[in-house]
Task: structure prediction
Amino acid sequence: MDLSSLNATSSSGADTLEIELSDNGFSVGSSLFTLTSSGHIVPGTGTGTATYNAYFDANTLFAETTLIGTLGPFSGPYATSVTGGGTVTTPYSLTEDLVLTAGAGGVQWSTDSSISPAPEPASLILLGSALLGLGWLGRRRHKTA
Result:
């Protein structure tokens, strides 16, 4: 799930802006999820913060039942991620919550974020073993030729 290329501007005295993105019906579970985010406050436009939260639930849109992780609050340039617990029970829903807070003079944000299944250690070991096997097989063929 991806909230990409969000640009928002706040005037002075504006309330906090909260943006929620949710989707359900995911059919492949993951024991870990990664929330990734990057962005910045546009220089010269004021002060403010950006905070991200990600959740999963048993297939209910906009549910904030189980926290995957939190990033922020950020008040300058950032590019970071957090990995948290997931679910192997399907179907399930994912919800991303972005909270933008402006300083007294207003501000302009530019941000990208996403939630994705984290690669599991067993999958990485299997992939590594396959690559080693292919390398060994290629070397063996090269010696016999």
Notes: The helical segments are 121-144.
